[in-house]
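**User:**
Make up any protein.

**Assistant:**
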Amino acid sequence: MNQKQQQVLANLAAIFFISGFSALVYQVSWQRLLFTGFGVDLTSITLIISVFMMGLGIGAFFGGRIADKFPQKIILIFCLVELFIGVFGLVSHYLILGLQSVLIQASLPILSVFTFLLLLFPTFLMGLTLPLLTGYFNQFIDNIGQSIGTLYFYNTLGAAVGSLATGFILFNYLTLSQTIQMAAVFNLMIAGLIFMLYGRNYAL
């Protein structure tokens, strides 16, 4: 791997660390929001884990196919994905509480289904990010396994740090809404940074 490839990989790894951090901030924070409608029980925990696993899985499935079909637009697509995640994050606090307010008289299964569908959108977008960036980096390097492994490692590391930081630090100094908004700002920053670094050449 030459120096340019190493620099691209380092940049994308840093981006993916932040992306993983934000994703787990969302997961922990949204789970806390679900306590309002479901209570602190197995239902809310099962729901948030299920929607994240399904959304990430479906997103990963389609992300690779999108990268293969639009190889020259990968960076623009990735920036739009991060932008949409950030925008949803900014309003997610109000959407989740608003949905619970509208369905306050609904049965638990109905509330669960609508909440699941609401959160499936952003988690699907999160699932798109790894195959998109991997597809972009694979244009510069033949060792696909190394690029996937490195990006996945830093994404998972960021997720672990995000989970710990949210529970032990952020909730002690920020409100729940502020914590979610911080994660959203990170997504918006990622979109802008990636576009400035790699996207301007593909904007035409």
Summary: The first helix runs from residue 3 to 38.
